Amino acid sequence: MSSVISTEEVARIASLARLGVTDKEITAAAQTLQDVLAHFAAIQDIVVTDVPTADNMAGLTNITRADEARPENLCSAADLRAAAPDTSDNQIKVKAVFT
Amino acid sequence: MNITHRTLTELIAARTAGEAATKLVADSLAAITAWEPAIHAFREVLTEEAHVQADTCDRDQPTGRLHGIPIAIKDNILTREGHTTAASRMLENFRAPYDSTVITKLKQAGAIIIGKTNLDEFAMGASTEYSAFGPTKNPWDTTRVPGGSSGGSAAAVASGEVAAALGTDTGGSIRHPAAFCGIVGVRPTYGRVSRFGAIAYGSSLDQIGPLARTVRDAALLLEVIAGHDPHDATTSKKPVGKYVAACGSSDISSTALAKDEATVMAHERNIVGLTVGVPEEYFAEGVDENVRRTVTDAVRQLSRIGCKIKNISLPLTPAGIPVYYLLAKAEGASNLARYDALRFAPQAAEAASLLEQYTESRGRGFGAEVKRTILMGTYALAAGYVDAWYKHASRVRTLMRREFETAFANVDIIAGPTAPEVAFPFGGRADPLAMYLADILTTPASVAGLPAISLPCGFADGLPVGLQLTGKAFAEETLFALAHAYEQSQQWWKKVPELPNDAR
């Protein structure tokens, strides 16, 4: 399944991923994606009928715990706020979601 | 400048004999001062913090196995000390609010975090050329790359700045730079070491592991960091093996007697009779002729010390790169979604809306390869493509795991080169696809979740060559036993790079 990847397609993917890209980056990425996927297309010939996807690499199931706060997990709120670019009134400040 | 090049085992012995932690830290900092202008292995050296810790160590009663010993940490592993940047502008000013589990374990063992080492941005790369803060250079030849992505950790160990370091391995990021820098690097079984606090790339692939000069040192460091962790649900409850014991109780000190003694030692350590599988695909076209010859000699040596050599075939080997990259980039794109520039990371303050702020901040904060990850990964997961790319790759991954299982019914260990070439010059793999292909021999074990070790097995064109041994899941003890017996029979590890003339 090798196909031509258009610059429009790359721009659409970038916007889905909330990634700012310049026109130059879009052109370069379209070419690179096309080259790389053309190479990777070799695996399309491998027959996978009835083969399950590899969804569980650790081979573990049902890892559960009680739904309780574990204080030892938590770092201080002050440390978390310190990492944020903008804070106000002990909270992380963001732009309005609905405008 | 005299760099001592002491191994972790030697440093532990020195501490037991009463040598001060402050002396060890001073030695390490002196080596760092001498080497850093030439190699740039560290993203940040924690001089102040290390001095304070060393003073504390010298006042305390020694407790842990690494008490007072400096260790370097790849800068995508969270530490309370210093910054944790993943070599990205996105995290340039980030200070981690908590320690990774491996760091907690190192600290409990008494280790001193001497600094954070350079890497390809978010561990995406095989040369450290993708670091936002400039590349690391190979201590054997500073016109060449150290490999990657844990290139800083590998160069720091090879140069003698530290005896040991931690790295992370998604598709080869510990083993590949270990091979290029002539040291030992171990990718543990998936689930053996907690990733809590490691900045995620491909979550079904990522593992933390040791880089050191000798197999025994790597075994020791893995023993300290391995084990179940309630903070990482993918960690196994299987007991941690006796990795140091697997290396046997004594090393060979006299090189003159090395070869005969090694044969005797091999008998003592039950490696005689181990069957080593040698896949023809690991020596195929694309593997440099001198690398092939060097590794073939190493396999012959494995036979000499008592292993049975069996030629095998792993026909799915060429699928390793596509399968690995499709899955790693998809998982990477998903993991990178958290960099929204709200909770951390520099923000595009002038943005008019929240959406614009996300887009602008991410566009500025991420480098070229990380952007490729996001685009390729999002593409492979997008509606209309997900079945053909992501899910297909995941099914082929199942086939690759089965292929290894079948092979391991008849062999104990699989051997081959770690990388298809020796360290390449800067810019030598400028095309993204060419860079991906550097991982051709390390991705299969990653895809299958298996443990693998790279250790020095000689030189080609004056540069180190790595022998890669891959084992069954959770069979690290067998890997260490054989790797140690081979290492002691050849003593390649004793050769160290010289400080470049202009840096002396």
Count of strand segments of chain B: 11
Q: Helicity of chain A, in percent?
A: 25-40%
Query: Mean pLDDT across all residues of chain A, rounded?
Result: 89
Give the overall form of chain B: globular
Q: How would a textbook summarize the main sheet of chain A?
A: 2 strands, antiparallel
**Average pLDDT for all residues of chain B:** 94
Series of secondary-structure elements of chain B, N-terminal to C-terminal: HHEHEHEHEHEEHHHEHEHHHHEHHEEH
State the CATH class of chain B.
Answer: Alpha Beta
Strand content of chain B: 5-15%
Tally of individual helices of chain A:
3
| Assembly form of the protein | heterodimer
The CATH superfamily of chain B is known as Amidase signature (AS) domain
Category by helix and strand content of chain A:
mainly alpha
Largest interface, with Cβ-Cβ < 8 Å? A-B, 56 and 71 residues
- Residue runs with pLDDT of under 50 for 5 or more positions of chain A: none
Could you list the spans of chain B in which at least 5 consecutive residues all have pLDDT below 50?
252-258
Helix coverage percent of residues of chain B?
25-40%
* SSE order of chain A, one letter for each helix or strand: HHHEE
- Please list the strands of the largest sheet of chain A in the order they lie side by side: 1-2
Radius of gyration based on Cα positions of chain A:
22 Å
**Number of E-type strands of chain A:** 2
Catalytic activity (chain B): L-glutamyl-tRNA(Gln) + L-glutamine + ATP + H2O = L-glutaminyl-tRNA(Gln) + L-glutamate + ADP + phosphate + H(+)
Domain Amidase (chain B): 24-479
InterPro entries (chain B): Amidase, Amidase_CS, Amidase_dom, AS_sf, GatA
EC number (chain B): 6.3.5.7
